[in-house]
Amino acid sequence: MIQALSSPESDAIVALVRQKVQLRKALPQVETFYDVDLPIPRKTKRNPLQRAELARVRAKAKNDAVRSWPKFLRSTRLNQHAVNEAVLEALENMASESERQQEMLQTTQSMYADLAAKHAALLEKHSELSQEQKKHVQEARTKFAHLENVAHMIESRLQASTEIPQSQQLPRSESDSSLAAALMDIRIDSFYLAFEDQFRGSRALIKERLLAYAPHLSAVKQQMTDAAAVDVGCGRGEWLEVLKEHGIAAHGVDMNERMAAQCRSFGLDASRGDGIAHLQNLPAESQAVVSGFHIVEHLPFPQLFELIRQSFRVLRPGGLAIFETPNPECLHVSTRSFYYDPTHRNPIPSELLAFLAAHVGFSETQIERLQPYTEEGVFKGYLDYGGIFRK
Hints:
Blueprint: H1 8-26, H2 48-67, H3 71-78, H4 80-163, H5 172-200, H6 203-210, H7 214-223, E1 228-232, H8 238-245, E2 249-254, H9 257-265, E3 270-272, H10 275-280, E4 287-293, H11 301-314, E5 315-326, H12 331-335, H13 350-360, E6 364-375, E7 378-390
Parallel strand pairs: 1-2, 1-4, 2-3, 4-5
Antiparallel strand pairs: 5-7, 6-7
């Protein structure tokens, strides 16, 4: 905020200047041309020659005094009275101007305060509008995703129906039932995409968190220059982007068609499908990295066992498996946030996941706890953990 150029010290100086000016004006006007020690005539009778000599000495002293000044100051010295008057007038004008500037600054300060209050009110109003607009954008995005999936499904159905001979087509009732099931799948896909945006966090936030695994990727890349990776349950593609930025060719698989399509819209390699089935179709020892973020808690144990086993099979020696999941050691997770997602089955303790990896053959198992959680400034544990297993 603008501060007025006023203080007790400056006010005292201005008052002193005014006082000196008034005192100076009250003094009798005495012309003083210079300050020189001149001979003081004694009150004695002198003859004309002595008086003339004394006048000559005084005149010479005056002339010598003036000559001792620089040329550009001589006229000032000879007109000292006028100079003093000019300086006093200038000081008085400066004092008046200072007071005028102080009044203007006080007025400006008041205007600035009013403008600052109006600006704060506008910012608050803009923030409210932004939140409302964000809500509308999110709703529109969800509806558009649903319509896009419906259109894609209808197009696929029409194309398939034209390719199937009439004799092999399903009866109408069975076809309608299948169509209704497909529509429900699309609705669930759209719901889960919106759920991720709301509860998982933005893509930028998740990508930043995933950079915690960057040192492991760098180590793999140094060991395998032609490293390839597969990400099971790739979601919105944040991890695929991280892999791509580290020079690792990665393919993502997700059962949610909408999420796979979103990955492709970002220029990432992703397809809709079952991640475990995709691993089963890959050649043995063909991948440098197999990963799955927040998927193991969705699987019944037989599928979880097969996921870890197939990951070990397709990894090259020295390859890395990374599986991140909610950490049940944190009470906030095990008693509350884990159940936000209706597709979660049960929390997976880190000891269980590490034992399972060692059981299928991984030589190294490591657990990294992530996302510290606090309540009212008190640390309450880690929300997630990552199981890092090396073949």
